[in-house]
Write a structure and sequence with these properties.
The chain is of the alpha+beta class and 505 residues long. 36% of the residues lie in helices and 27% in strands. A six-stranded antiparallel β-barrel has the order 3-14-17-16-15-18. A four-stranded antiparallel sheet has the order 2-23-19-20, with no helix packed on it. A four-stranded antiparallel sheet has the order 4-13-11-6, with no helix packed on it.
Protein backbone atom coordinates (compact mmCIF):
# COMPACT_ATOMS: atom_id res chain seq x y z
CA UNK A 1 0.00 0.00 0.00
CA UNK A 2 2.84 2.30 0.81
CA UNK A 3 4.54 1.65 -2.54
CA UNK A 4 1.19 2.39 -4.42
CA UNK A 5 0.81 5.77 -2.77
CA UNK A 6 4.35 6.74 -3.59
CA UNK A 7 3.80 5.79 -7.22
CA UNK A 8 0.66 8.00 -7.50
CA UNK A 9 2.45 10.98 -5.96
CA UNK A 10 5.27 10.71 -8.50
CA UNK A 11 2.79 10.65 -11.39
CA UNK A 12 1.01 13.79 -10.19
CA UNK A 13 4.28 15.64 -9.92
CA UNK A 14 5.14 14.72 -13.49
CA UNK A 15 1.75 16.06 -14.74
CA UNK A 16 2.21 19.33 -12.96
CA UNK A 17 5.68 19.71 -14.40
CA UNK A 18 4.44 19.00 -17.96
CA UNK A 19 1.60 21.55 -17.70
CA UNK A 20 3.97 24.18 -16.42
CA UNK A 21 6.40 23.59 -19.26
CA UNK A 22 3.59 23.82 -21.87
CA UNK A 23 2.33 27.10 -20.42
CA UNK A 24 5.80 28.55 -20.46
CA UNK A 25 6.27 27.47 -24.09
CA UNK A 26 2.97 29.14 -25.17
CA UNK A 27 3.85 32.35 -23.39
CA UNK A 28 7.22 32.38 -25.01
CA UNK A 29 5.79 31.76 -28.50
CA UNK A 30 3.24 34.56 -28.06
CA UNK A 31 5.94 36.93 -26.87
CA UNK A 32 8.14 36.05 -29.84
CA UNK A 33 5.30 36.60 -32.34
CA UNK A 34 4.43 39.95 -30.76
CA UNK A 35 8.02 41.07 -30.88
CA UNK A 36 8.26 40.07 -34.56
CA UNK A 37 5.13 41.96 -35.65
CA UNK A 38 6.12 45.02 -33.69
CA UNK A 39 9.57 45.05 -35.19
CA UNK A 40 8.39 44.25 -38.72
CA UNK A 41 5.06 46.15 -39.39
CA UNK A 42 3.17 45.45 -42.74
CA UNK A 43 3.66 47.95 -45.58
CA UNK A 44 1.12 48.83 -48.35
CA UNK A 45 2.32 47.95 -51.78
CA UNK A 46 1.37 50.03 -54.80
CA UNK A 47 -0.55 48.07 -57.41
CA UNK A 48 0.69 48.05 -60.88
CA UNK A 49 -1.21 49.74 -63.75
CA UNK A 50 -4.14 47.64 -64.93
CA UNK A 51 -6.96 47.99 -67.39
CA UNK A 52 -9.79 50.52 -66.51
CA UNK A 53 -13.03 48.92 -65.34
CA UNK A 54 -15.95 49.33 -67.85
CA UNK A 55 -19.51 49.54 -66.43
CA UNK A 56 -22.43 47.90 -68.19
CA UNK A 57 -25.52 50.15 -68.66
CA UNK A 58 -28.94 50.00 -70.27
CA UNK A 59 -29.92 52.80 -72.63
CA UNK A 60 -32.98 54.15 -74.39
CA UNK A 61 -32.84 56.18 -77.61
CA UNK A 62 -34.40 59.63 -77.24
CA UNK A 63 -37.35 60.38 -79.56
CA UNK A 64 -39.19 63.71 -79.03
CA UNK A 65 -42.98 63.54 -79.52
CA UNK A 66 -46.19 65.45 -78.84
CA UNK A 67 -47.82 64.56 -75.55
CA UNK A 68 -51.41 65.27 -74.54
CA UNK A 69 -51.41 65.85 -70.83
CA UNK A 70 -53.95 64.14 -68.60
CA UNK A 71 -54.79 65.02 -65.02
CA UNK A 72 -56.21 62.38 -62.69
CA UNK A 73 -58.49 63.64 -59.96
CA UNK A 74 -61.24 62.58 -57.59
CA UNK A 75 -64.40 64.37 -56.58
CA UNK A 76 -68.05 64.35 -55.55
CA UNK A 77 -71.26 64.42 -57.61
CA UNK A 78 -73.49 67.40 -56.82
CA UNK A 79 -76.88 68.68 -57.95
CA UNK A 80 -76.89 71.74 -60.19
CA UNK A 81 -80.46 72.73 -59.27
CA UNK A 82 -82.23 71.50 -56.15
CA UNK A 83 -85.81 72.86 -56.09
CA UNK A 84 -88.07 72.95 -53.07
CA UNK A 85 -91.73 73.12 -54.16
CA UNK A 86 -93.98 75.02 -51.74
CA UNK A 87 -97.68 75.87 -51.63
CA UNK A 88 -98.61 79.32 -52.99
CA UNK A 89 -102.20 79.35 -51.70
CA UNK A 90 -104.03 77.82 -48.77
CA UNK A 91 -106.56 75.03 -49.02
CA UNK A 92 -107.17 71.30 -48.93
CA UNK A 93 -105.11 69.08 -51.24
CA UNK A 94 -107.47 67.24 -53.61
CA UNK A 95 -104.99 65.43 -55.88
CA UNK A 96 -101.35 64.27 -55.80
CA UNK A 97 -99.50 62.94 -58.84
CA UNK A 98 -98.77 59.20 -58.63
CA UNK A 99 -95.16 59.87 -59.72
CA UNK A 100 -94.55 62.03 -56.67
CA UNK A 101 -92.45 59.40 -54.89
CA UNK A 102 -88.74 59.57 -54.04
CA UNK A 103 -86.63 58.39 -56.97
CA UNK A 104 -89.34 58.87 -59.62
CA UNK A 105 -88.66 60.90 -62.73
CA UNK A 106 -91.06 63.78 -63.49
CA UNK A 107 -91.11 65.85 -66.67
CA UNK A 108 -91.22 69.61 -66.90
CA UNK A 109 -94.81 70.97 -66.87
CA UNK A 110 -96.41 67.97 -65.16
CA UNK A 111 -98.93 68.74 -62.39
CA UNK A 112 -97.80 67.32 -59.04
CA UNK A 113 -100.29 68.73 -56.52
CA UNK A 114 -103.79 70.25 -56.85
CA UNK A 115 -105.45 72.37 -54.14
CA UNK A 116 -109.26 72.69 -53.94
CA UNK A 117 -110.32 75.32 -56.51
CA UNK A 118 -114.02 76.06 -55.84
CA UNK A 119 -113.48 79.10 -53.61
CA UNK A 120 -110.91 80.53 -55.98
CA UNK A 121 -113.24 80.11 -59.00
CA UNK A 122 -116.01 82.03 -57.19
CA UNK A 123 -113.58 84.81 -56.27
CA UNK A 124 -112.51 85.02 -59.91
CA UNK A 125 -116.13 85.32 -61.13
CA UNK A 126 -116.79 88.16 -58.66
CA UNK A 127 -113.66 89.96 -59.77
CA UNK A 128 -114.63 89.59 -63.44
CA UNK A 129 -118.12 91.04 -62.75
CA UNK A 130 -116.61 94.00 -60.92
CA UNK A 131 -114.22 94.55 -63.80
CA UNK A 132 -117.02 94.53 -66.39
CA UNK A 133 -119.00 97.01 -64.28
CA UNK A 134 -115.98 99.29 -64.04
CA UNK A 135 -115.51 99.10 -67.82
CA UNK A 136 -119.16 100.13 -68.35
CA UNK A 137 -118.74 103.08 -65.97
CA UNK A 138 -115.72 104.25 -67.96
CA UNK A 139 -117.73 104.13 -71.20
CA UNK A 140 -120.56 106.13 -69.58
CA UNK A 141 -118.09 108.77 -68.44
CA UNK A 142 -116.65 108.94 -71.93
CA UNK A 143 -120.14 109.56 -73.34
CA UNK A 144 -120.77 112.30 -70.74
CA UNK A 145 -117.52 114.00 -71.75
CA UNK A 146 -118.57 113.93 -75.41
CA UNK A 147 -121.94 115.50 -74.47
CA UNK A 148 -120.22 118.21 -72.44
CA UNK A 149 -117.93 118.93 -75.39
CA UNK A 150 -120.97 119.33 -77.60
CA UNK A 151 -122.54 121.76 -75.10
CA UNK A 152 -119.32 123.76 -75.00
CA UNK A 153 -119.24 123.97 -78.79
CA UNK A 154 -122.86 125.11 -78.85
CA UNK A 155 -122.31 127.72 -76.10
CA UNK A 156 -119.16 128.95 -77.80
CA UNK A 157 -121.04 129.35 -81.07
CA UNK A 158 -123.82 131.22 -79.31
CA UNK A 159 -121.28 133.55 -77.70
CA UNK A 160 -119.66 134.28 -81.06
CA UNK A 161 -123.06 135.04 -82.56
CA UNK A 162 -124.01 137.28 -79.64
CA UNK A 163 -120.79 139.21 -79.95
CA UNK A 164 -121.52 139.72 -83.65
CA UNK A 165 -124.94 141.08 -82.79
CA UNK A 166 -123.32 143.41 -80.28
CA UNK A 167 -121.02 144.77 -82.97
CA UNK A 168 -123.99 145.40 -85.25
CA UNK A 169 -125.82 147.20 -82.45
CA UNK A 170 -122.77 149.29 -81.69
CA UNK A 171 -122.37 150.27 -85.34
CA UNK A 172 -126.04 151.33 -85.66
CA UNK A 173 -125.76 153.22 -82.42
CA UNK A 174 -122.81 155.20 -83.78
CA UNK A 175 -124.53 155.92 -87.06
CA UNK A 176 -127.63 157.20 -85.28
CA UNK A 177 -125.90 159.42 -82.77
CA UNK A 178 -122.88 160.45 -84.80
CA UNK A 179 -120.77 159.83 -81.77
CA UNK A 180 -118.18 157.15 -81.40
CA UNK A 181 -118.88 156.70 -77.75
CA UNK A 182 -122.69 157.01 -77.93
CA UNK A 183 -122.84 160.53 -76.23
CA UNK A 184 -123.69 164.14 -77.50
CA UNK A 185 -121.44 167.14 -77.23
CA UNK A 186 -122.64 167.80 -73.70
CA UNK A 187 -121.81 164.28 -72.54
CA UNK A 188 -125.48 163.14 -72.34
CA UNK A 189 -126.46 159.86 -73.93
CA UNK A 190 -128.61 160.20 -77.04
CA UNK A 191 -131.32 157.70 -77.97
CA UNK A 192 -131.58 156.60 -81.63
CA UNK A 193 -134.77 157.23 -83.60
CA UNK A 194 -137.72 154.90 -83.38
CA UNK A 195 -137.06 153.65 -86.90
CA UNK A 196 -133.61 152.31 -85.91
CA UNK A 197 -133.12 148.54 -86.27
CA UNK A 198 -131.47 148.52 -82.88
CA UNK A 199 -134.60 149.75 -81.15
CA UNK A 200 -136.84 147.52 -83.15
CA UNK A 201 -134.93 144.43 -82.10
CA UNK A 202 -134.98 145.35 -78.42
CA UNK A 203 -137.40 143.34 -76.27
CA UNK A 204 -140.53 145.41 -75.61
CA UNK A 205 -139.31 148.14 -78.00
CA UNK A 206 -142.75 148.51 -79.60
CA UNK A 207 -144.13 149.76 -76.30
CA UNK A 208 -141.21 151.92 -75.21
CA UNK A 209 -140.00 153.50 -78.42
CA UNK A 210 -139.19 157.09 -77.67
CA UNK A 211 -140.31 159.87 -79.83
CA UNK A 212 -138.23 160.73 -82.86
CA UNK A 213 -135.44 163.03 -82.24
CA UNK A 214 -132.76 163.01 -79.73
CA UNK A 215 -133.72 161.72 -76.28
CA UNK A 216 -131.69 161.37 -73.11
CA UNK A 217 -131.08 157.65 -72.04
CA UNK A 218 -129.65 156.09 -68.90
CA UNK A 219 -126.59 153.86 -68.68
CA UNK A 220 -128.76 150.75 -68.09
CA UNK A 221 -130.70 151.49 -71.22
CA UNK A 222 -127.52 152.05 -73.17
CA UNK A 223 -126.13 148.73 -71.91
CA UNK A 224 -129.30 147.03 -73.06
CA UNK A 225 -129.10 148.76 -76.45
CA UNK A 226 -125.49 147.52 -76.89
CA UNK A 227 -126.55 143.93 -75.85
CA UNK A 228 -124.09 143.69 -72.98
CA UNK A 229 -126.43 141.51 -70.82
CA UNK A 230 -126.86 139.14 -73.74
CA UNK A 231 -123.08 138.72 -74.13
CA UNK A 232 -122.62 138.12 -70.44
CA UNK A 233 -125.37 135.48 -70.48
CA UNK A 234 -123.67 133.69 -73.41
CA UNK A 235 -120.30 133.80 -71.62
CA UNK A 236 -121.91 132.41 -68.46
CA UNK A 237 -123.47 129.59 -70.48
CA UNK A 238 -120.03 128.73 -71.97
CA UNK A 239 -118.37 128.74 -68.54
CA UNK A 240 -121.11 126.47 -67.19
CA UNK A 241 -120.59 124.03 -70.08
CA UNK A 242 -116.83 123.98 -69.44
CA UNK A 243 -117.40 123.33 -65.74
CA UNK A 244 -119.70 120.42 -66.55
CA UNK A 245 -117.02 119.03 -68.92
CA UNK A 246 -114.33 119.30 -66.20
CA UNK A 247 -116.64 117.48 -63.78
CA UNK A 248 -117.24 114.77 -66.40
CA UNK A 249 -113.50 114.39 -66.99
CA UNK A 250 -112.89 114.06 -63.26
CA UNK A 251 -115.57 111.40 -63.05
CA UNK A 252 -113.95 109.63 -66.04
CA UNK A 253 -110.55 109.65 -64.36
CA UNK A 254 -112.03 108.17 -61.23
CA UNK A 255 -113.79 105.52 -63.32
CA UNK A 256 -110.45 104.64 -64.95
CA UNK A 257 -108.84 104.16 -61.53
CA UNK A 258 -111.73 101.97 -60.48
CA UNK A 259 -111.35 99.92 -63.66
CA UNK A 260 -107.61 99.47 -63.07
CA UNK A 261 -108.25 98.28 -59.52
CA UNK A 262 -110.95 95.92 -60.73
CA UNK A 263 -108.62 94.54 -63.42
CA UNK A 264 -105.81 94.01 -60.88
CA UNK A 265 -108.26 92.24 -58.55
CA UNK A 266 -109.41 90.02 -61.42
CA UNK A 267 -105.80 89.16 -62.38
CA UNK A 268 -104.99 88.44 -58.75
CA UNK A 269 -107.97 86.10 -58.52
CA UNK A 270 -106.89 84.44 -61.78
CA UNK A 271 -103.36 84.01 -60.43
CA UNK A 272 -104.65 82.55 -57.17
CA UNK A 273 -106.68 80.03 -59.15
CA UNK A 274 -103.66 79.08 -61.25
CA UNK A 275 -101.58 78.61 -58.11
CA UNK A 276 -103.92 75.92 -56.89
CA UNK A 277 -102.03 73.59 -59.27
CA UNK A 278 -98.32 73.03 -58.56
CA UNK A 279 -96.34 72.12 -61.69
CA UNK A 280 -92.82 70.78 -62.21
CA UNK A 281 -90.55 73.68 -63.25
CA UNK A 282 -87.87 71.42 -64.85
CA UNK A 283 -87.05 67.83 -65.71
CA UNK A 284 -86.30 66.36 -62.33
CA UNK A 285 -86.15 63.37 -60.04
CA UNK A 286 -88.12 63.42 -56.79
CA UNK A 287 -85.85 63.52 -53.76
CA UNK A 288 -88.46 64.01 -51.02
CA UNK A 289 -92.28 64.06 -50.72
CA UNK A 290 -94.01 66.07 -47.95
CA UNK A 291 -97.74 66.07 -48.89
CA UNK A 292 -100.66 63.68 -49.26
CA UNK A 293 -104.28 64.00 -50.49
CA UNK A 294 -106.52 65.59 -47.85
CA UNK A 295 -103.76 67.63 -46.22
CA UNK A 296 -104.49 71.28 -45.56
CA UNK A 297 -101.64 73.44 -46.81
CA UNK A 298 -100.74 77.07 -46.24
CA UNK A 299 -98.60 79.43 -48.35
CA UNK A 300 -94.93 78.58 -47.96
CA UNK A 301 -95.50 75.01 -46.76
CA UNK A 302 -93.07 72.48 -48.29
CA UNK A 303 -94.64 69.98 -50.71
CA UNK A 304 -91.65 68.19 -52.32
CA UNK A 305 -87.95 68.47 -53.15
CA UNK A 306 -86.78 67.95 -56.74
CA UNK A 307 -83.35 67.65 -58.35
CA UNK A 308 -82.66 68.73 -61.92
CA UNK A 309 -81.84 65.71 -64.09
CA UNK A 310 -80.76 67.62 -67.19
CA UNK A 311 -77.27 68.00 -65.72
CA UNK A 312 -75.15 67.28 -62.66
CA UNK A 313 -71.94 68.86 -61.43
CA UNK A 314 -68.86 66.94 -60.35
CA UNK A 315 -66.46 68.94 -58.18
CA UNK A 316 -62.92 67.58 -58.66
CA UNK A 317 -59.90 68.31 -56.46
CA UNK A 318 -56.92 69.12 -58.70
CA UNK A 319 -53.36 70.06 -57.69
CA UNK A 320 -52.80 73.75 -58.29
CA UNK A 321 -49.71 73.12 -60.45
CA UNK A 322 -51.83 70.97 -62.81
CA UNK A 323 -54.31 73.73 -63.64
CA UNK A 324 -52.06 75.05 -66.41
CA UNK A 325 -52.86 71.98 -68.51
CA UNK A 326 -56.64 72.47 -68.37
CA UNK A 327 -58.98 74.45 -70.60
CA UNK A 328 -61.29 76.40 -68.29
CA UNK A 329 -63.97 78.58 -69.98
CA UNK A 330 -63.97 82.24 -69.01
CA UNK A 331 -67.38 83.11 -70.44
CA UNK A 332 -70.70 81.78 -69.18
CA UNK A 333 -71.78 80.21 -72.47
CA UNK A 334 -68.40 78.75 -73.46
CA UNK A 335 -68.82 75.36 -71.76
CA UNK A 336 -68.04 73.57 -75.06
CA UNK A 337 -64.51 74.99 -74.85
CA UNK A 338 -63.69 73.28 -71.54
CA UNK A 339 -61.45 70.23 -71.22
CA UNK A 340 -63.10 66.85 -71.73
CA UNK A 341 -63.42 64.61 -68.68
CA UNK A 342 -63.99 60.88 -68.31
CA UNK A 343 -65.70 59.89 -65.06
CA UNK A 344 -65.76 56.43 -63.50
CA UNK A 345 -67.19 54.86 -60.35
CA UNK A 346 -65.17 51.78 -59.46
CA UNK A 347 -67.34 50.60 -56.60
CA UNK A 348 -70.60 50.40 -58.57
CA UNK A 349 -69.83 50.32 -62.32
CA UNK A 350 -68.20 47.87 -64.68
CA UNK A 351 -64.52 48.32 -65.37
CA UNK A 352 -65.16 49.72 -68.86
CA UNK A 353 -68.14 51.92 -67.92
CA UNK A 354 -67.75 55.66 -67.73
CA UNK A 355 -69.53 58.98 -68.28
CA UNK A 356 -68.17 62.04 -70.03
CA UNK A 357 -68.39 65.73 -69.19
CA UNK A 358 -66.62 69.04 -69.66
CA UNK A 359 -64.89 71.49 -67.39
CA UNK A 360 -67.12 74.55 -66.98
CA UNK A 361 -65.80 76.45 -63.98
CA UNK A 362 -62.96 76.88 -61.50
CA UNK A 363 -64.09 77.65 -57.96
CA UNK A 364 -62.48 80.76 -56.42
CA UNK A 365 -60.97 79.07 -53.35
CA UNK A 366 -58.96 76.01 -52.35
CA UNK A 367 -60.48 73.08 -50.50
CA UNK A 368 -59.52 73.18 -46.83
CA UNK A 369 -58.04 69.74 -46.20
CA UNK A 370 -55.62 69.19 -49.10
CA UNK A 371 -55.34 72.82 -50.23
CA UNK A 372 -56.20 71.77 -53.78
CA UNK A 373 -58.04 73.67 -56.50
CA UNK A 374 -61.67 72.77 -57.17
CA UNK A 375 -62.70 72.28 -60.79
CA UNK A 376 -66.40 71.98 -61.70
CA UNK A 377 -67.31 69.46 -64.42
CA UNK A 378 -70.77 69.41 -65.99
CA UNK A 379 -72.34 66.10 -67.05
CA UNK A 380 -75.44 66.13 -69.29
CA UNK A 381 -78.26 63.65 -68.72
CA UNK A 382 -76.62 62.12 -65.64
CA UNK A 383 -79.59 59.82 -64.96
CA UNK A 384 -79.37 58.30 -68.49
CA UNK A 385 -82.97 59.25 -69.27
CA UNK A 386 -82.37 59.97 -72.97
CA UNK A 387 -82.22 57.10 -75.46
CA UNK A 388 -78.69 58.02 -76.51
CA UNK A 389 -77.47 57.31 -72.96
CA UNK A 390 -79.70 54.32 -72.20
CA UNK A 391 -76.73 51.91 -72.07
CA UNK A 392 -74.65 54.17 -69.81
CA UNK A 393 -74.62 54.03 -66.00
CA UNK A 394 -76.45 56.67 -63.99
CA UNK A 395 -74.60 59.05 -61.71
CA UNK A 396 -75.69 59.08 -58.09
CA UNK A 397 -75.72 62.26 -56.06
CA UNK A 398 -72.99 62.60 -53.42
CA UNK A 399 -71.07 59.63 -54.86
CA UNK A 400 -67.25 59.74 -54.83
CA UNK A 401 -65.90 59.29 -58.36
CA UNK A 402 -62.59 59.13 -60.20
CA UNK A 403 -61.93 61.32 -63.22
CA UNK A 404 -59.34 61.73 -65.92
CA UNK A 405 -59.19 65.24 -67.41
CA UNK A 406 -57.89 65.62 -70.94
CA UNK A 407 -55.43 68.53 -70.93
CA UNK A 408 -53.47 70.53 -73.48
CA UNK A 409 -50.81 69.15 -75.82
CA UNK A 410 -47.11 69.76 -75.24
CA UNK A 411 -44.86 69.43 -78.26
CA UNK A 412 -41.29 68.18 -78.74
CA UNK A 413 -40.84 66.64 -75.31
CA UNK A 414 -38.88 63.56 -74.24
CA UNK A 415 -40.42 60.97 -71.95
CA UNK A 416 -37.95 60.09 -69.18
CA UNK A 417 -38.74 57.34 -66.64
CA UNK A 418 -38.59 58.44 -63.03
CA UNK A 419 -35.84 55.86 -62.41
CA UNK A 420 -33.65 57.54 -65.06
CA UNK A 421 -34.16 61.06 -63.70
CA UNK A 422 -31.34 62.16 -61.38
CA UNK A 423 -31.08 64.78 -58.67
CA UNK A 424 -30.79 68.41 -59.67
CA UNK A 425 -32.80 67.96 -62.90
CA UNK A 426 -30.01 65.90 -64.48
CA UNK A 427 -29.92 62.80 -66.67
CA UNK A 428 -27.13 60.43 -67.75
CA UNK A 429 -26.41 60.02 -71.45
CA UNK A 430 -24.13 57.53 -73.20
CA UNK A 431 -21.90 59.61 -75.47
CA UNK A 432 -20.80 58.43 -78.96
CA UNK A 433 -17.39 57.65 -77.37
CA UNK A 434 -19.15 55.27 -74.92
CA UNK A 435 -18.49 57.54 -71.97
CA UNK A 436 -20.81 59.01 -69.35
CA UNK A 437 -22.21 62.49 -70.10
CA UNK A 438 -24.22 64.21 -67.36
CA UNK A 439 -26.74 66.71 -68.77
CA UNK A 440 -28.95 69.25 -67.05
CA UNK A 441 -32.46 69.35 -68.52
CA UNK A 442 -35.59 71.50 -68.30
CA UNK A 443 -38.70 69.73 -67.06
CA UNK A 444 -41.97 70.62 -68.79
CA UNK A 445 -44.30 68.30 -66.89
CA UNK A 446 -44.27 65.49 -64.33
CA UNK A 447 -46.42 62.42 -63.73
CA UNK A 448 -46.12 59.76 -61.05
CA UNK A 449 -44.07 57.50 -63.37
CA UNK A 450 -42.41 59.82 -65.86
CA UNK A 451 -40.83 63.23 -66.37
CA UNK A 452 -41.30 65.10 -69.65
CA UNK A 453 -38.21 67.07 -70.71
CA UNK A 454 -38.43 69.96 -73.16
CA UNK A 455 -34.75 71.04 -73.34
CA UNK A 456 -31.40 69.37 -72.73
CA UNK A 457 -31.90 66.18 -74.76
CA UNK A 458 -31.66 65.83 -78.53
CA UNK A 459 -33.15 63.33 -80.90
CA UNK A 460 -31.00 60.20 -81.03
CA UNK A 461 -29.35 60.67 -77.62
CA UNK A 462 -28.94 57.46 -75.64
CA UNK A 463 -30.53 57.95 -72.26
CA UNK A 464 -29.07 55.71 -69.52
CA UNK A 465 -31.94 54.04 -67.64
CA UNK A 466 -29.90 51.79 -65.33
CA UNK A 467 -28.07 52.84 -62.19
CA UNK A 468 -24.33 53.48 -61.73
CA UNK A 469 -22.91 53.12 -58.23
CA UNK A 470 -20.30 55.88 -58.54
CA UNK A 471 -21.00 58.04 -61.61
CA UNK A 472 -18.08 60.14 -62.87
CA UNK A 473 -18.25 62.34 -65.95
CA UNK A 474 -16.28 60.70 -68.80
CA UNK A 475 -16.08 57.24 -67.28
CA UNK A 476 -16.07 54.31 -69.71
CA UNK A 477 -19.42 52.58 -70.26
CA UNK A 478 -20.72 49.73 -72.36
CA UNK A 479 -24.22 48.97 -73.58
CA UNK A 480 -24.68 45.23 -74.20
CA UNK A 481 -27.97 45.80 -75.98
CA UNK A 482 -26.36 48.14 -78.48
CA UNK A 483 -23.50 45.69 -79.06
CA UNK A 484 -25.96 42.92 -79.82
CA UNK A 485 -27.69 45.12 -82.37
CA UNK A 486 -24.38 45.89 -84.06
CA UNK A 487 -23.34 42.25 -84.14
CA UNK A 488 -26.72 41.25 -85.54
CA UNK A 489 -26.52 43.63 -88.51
CA UNK A 490 -23.71 41.78 -90.43
CA UNK A 491 -25.41 38.44 -89.87
CA UNK A 492 -28.60 39.85 -91.30
CA UNK A 493 -26.64 41.09 -94.29
CA UNK A 494 -25.01 37.70 -94.90
CA UNK A 495 -28.35 35.98 -94.63
CA UNK A 496 -29.88 38.35 -97.12
CA UNK A 497 -26.98 37.76 -99.55
CA UNK A 498 -27.34 33.98 -99.21
CA UNK A 499 -31.07 34.21 -99.86
CA UNK A 500 -30.42 36.30 -102.99
CA UNK A 501 -27.93 33.71 -104.29
CA UNK A 502 -30.41 30.89 -103.72
CA UNK A 503 -33.07 32.79 -105.64
CA UNK A 504 -30.70 33.29 -108.57
CA UNK A 505 -29.86 29.57 -108.62
Amino acid sequence: MATGNKHQQSHSKVRILVKTLLALCLIGAAGAAAWYWLSNPPKAKRRGKGKDKVHLVNTKTVKPFTKRMTVDAMGTVEAVDRVGLTARVSGRVTKVNADLTPGSYVEKGATLVTVEQRDYRLALEKARAAYEEAKLAVEERKLAIRERKSEIAKADKELILEKARQEVARSEYRLFTGEDNGQDSTGTSVLPSADSAVLKNLPGSSEAIPEPGRQNISNDEKSLILRKPHVKAAEAALDAAKARKASAEKAHKKALQTRRKAKAAMEEAQLALERTTVEVPLNAVVQAKNVAPGDYVAPGQSLATLVNTDRYWVTLNVPVDQLRWLEIPREKNDKDEGSKVRIALRSGWDKNSYRTGRVVRLKPGLEKQGRMAQVVVEVDDPRSVKEANADKPALLLDSFVEARIQGNRIRDVVKVPRTAFREGNRVWVLSPQNTLAIKEVEVKARTPDHVFVSEGLNKGDKLITSDISTPVEGMKLRDPGEEKKRSAKPDNGKKSQKSKRKKKQ
